[in-house]
Amino acid sequence: MPRTLSPAAIRAALALESNTAFLVLVTLTDPTDGTEYRVVCNTENVTSRGEVFTACYFEFVMPPDDDEAPKGVSLSIDNVDLGLVSLLRKITVPIGCKIEVVLNISPDTVEYELTELLLREVEWDESTIQGKLISDDPLNLLYPAHIYEPRTFPSIF
């Protein structure tokens, strides 16, 4: 299915030089109560459709392109806010994730989005929060791996 971009996005993508930047917005949603945590890979906060996305560095790491590669994309977010860590500590199911791309000149217009992703295998330390983004595809889940985790079944560990 072809992607439809706005004329401004097409001009920015094809220009040799431009003051227009593509911004990646990430929304993490707690599946138990709907609490949302929003970040943007930018140096300043961005308001899109009335929601404030906190400026924060994050990156995606693609797996190698071979049959042995693990499924999913790694997401690494700078741990600059304790709000996300407190969200991660209280949940026992994967976090919903939505990725959107907007232009800095028109942040209310979503140029591209990926929805229905899940953040699994989350780990954090004092500097970063890392996890794996996968689609909720039950045919590709490894059973019983990643079902019995210390967090959800503490008595078996």
Number of domains: 1
Percent of residues in beta strands: 35-45%
Number of strands: 9
Number of helices: 2
Please give the radius of gyration in angstroms: 17 Å
Architecture overview:
The chain is mostly beta strands and 157 residues long. It has 2 helices and 9 strands, in the order αββββββαβββ. It has one domain. A 9-stranded mixed beta sheet has the order 3-4-2-1-7-8-9-6-5, with helices on one face. A hairpin with a 2-residue loop joins β3 and β4. The longest helix is centred in the middle third of the chain and has 9 residues. The mean pLDDT is 82.
Defining traits:
single chain; 157 residues; mainly beta; nine-stranded mixed beta sheet
Provide a concise account of the structure shown:
This protein has 157 residues and is mainly beta.
Write the layout of secondary structure elements.
Layout: H1 7-14, E1 22-29, E2 36-40, E3 46-48, E4 51-55, E5 58-61, E6 73-78, H2 82-90, E7 95-103, E8 106-124, E9 128-135
Parallel strand pairs: 2-4
Antiparallel strand pairs: 1-2, 1-7, 3-4, 5-6, 6-9, 7-8, 8-9
